[in-house]
Structure formats: C-alpha cells, structure tokens
C-alpha cells in the first residue's frame, strides 16, 4: 500500500451509513481484527480501502454483499455478528434505544439493531463515523509503520488529527438541519473531549457535565451526547441510564 492511498483515505472516508441519517455515532478510531499475518492484513486493508463511498460513507445496507462478508470492518453488520453486541457500540446503541423507546433495551435488541439497522443507508436511521479513518486492532498497535510518512501513530495524529477534527465540525454544521442526535463515545478529558468540543463549536470547559464524564449540549435542533467508551468494563447500564433519564426530556427523536 502506498502513502497516497492512506492520504486519500484520510481525506475522503468518514464511516458507514448515510450522512443524512438523523442519528450519528462518532468514535475515535475504526477497529480492525488482525489475522496476525502482516501480508494478509495488508491485502484486507487494501480491499477495505477500495469499498465504494458516497460523501465519504460506505452504505452498509443489508444484506451485505457475500463477496465482502470476510472483511472484518463489515462483520458487525452481518446476521452472524455476535453473540454479544460489538463492545464499542453497545452503550451508544443502548442509549439511543432507551431515548427512542423510553424503556431499557435487552441485549438481543441491541445486537439486532447492530446487525440489521446500524449504518444501513436504506433504513437511514443511524450512521457511524470515526475521527481517525486508519483502522487499528487497539491503541497499542499500529499497522502502517513501514509506510513513509506514517511511521508512528503519533506522527500520523500530529499530521492529520486537526484537519480531521475541522472536517468533523464542518460535517456537523452541514447536516444540522437533518441531524437530531450525535453520540460521541470516548470522553477522556485530555485527548477526546477537546476534539468533540471543537466539533460542536465549544471549549471543553463550556461543556455541561450531567453526571461524571457524561456530557450534554443542544446546538439548535441537534442534541449532543458525550459518553465514555466502555474501556475494560468502566461503563455500566446503571451509570448510562442515570444520565439518560436526566437528558431524555431535552431530546426529540
């Protein structure tokens, strides 16, 4: 893979679904399930980066084309996904379903939403976006170190994160007339919160903390939720629902 392919990915790719969806989930970085074979990983990434997009989004409408079903980035959208919801999306989906339906969703309801609705551009209910478009198995891994200009994660972030942050803010503003709810997940005060604040035109100290590490803002007709990622079981349903009950009256979805 040459550096130009990565530059094109950074400049053009945002996520899965349809930007005109009324609900967005926005995370820090797309995951990637490594095969532990570097050549096989590179080939899969090349195929993944070649998926067709519209406005920077791949429409993961169901059923997923059988020829693409082995791509790890599409595996959460398959009927065979599971047996539990994808860990990074579980709590954002749980929050949305509670706000939409006014009741606690079951594990099966969360999983089935992920399997059959999330990022389906035809159903057009929820899109999922990533600030950092280069996939990684985890924060301690980096798959692109042998490519000039992408030797380390830190050098990549220094070069492109500000540009992506500005791009995200532009998208939120552009789609504000149809965007009802954005759920940013990851709320580290040093690394994540400043980026989400910038995306909605605020300073971090201006964000309203509803409960510990969970924030809420209303920008015109768009409701903004910022919640922690479920890192090593740090989130719990009780913690999420305490927050959800406090903001439910402010949200119209």
- Provide the residue-averaged pLDDT: 92
The SSE string, one letter per element, is HEEHEHHEHEHEEEH
> What ranges have pLDDT less than 50 throughout 5 or more consecutive residues?
none
Strand content: 15-25%
Describe it.
This protein has 253 residues and is of the alpha/beta class. It has seven helices and eight strands, in the order H-E-E-H-E-H-H-E-H-E-H-E-E-E-H.
List the helices and strands and how they pair.
Layout: H1 3-12, E1 15-16, E2 23-31, H2 38-49, E3 57-58, H3 87-101, H4 107-116, E4 126-136, H5 153-174, E5 181-185, H6 193-199, E6 209-211, E7 214-219, E8 222-227, H7 237-247
Parallel strand pairs: 1-3, 2-4, 2-5, 5-8
Antiparallel strand pairs: 1-4, 6-7, 7-8
Describe the structure using short key phrases:
8-stranded mixed sheet; alpha/beta; 8 strands; single chain; 253 residues; 7 helices
In brief, what are we looking at here?
The protein has 253 residues and is an alpha/beta fold. Helices cover 34% and strands 17% of the residues.
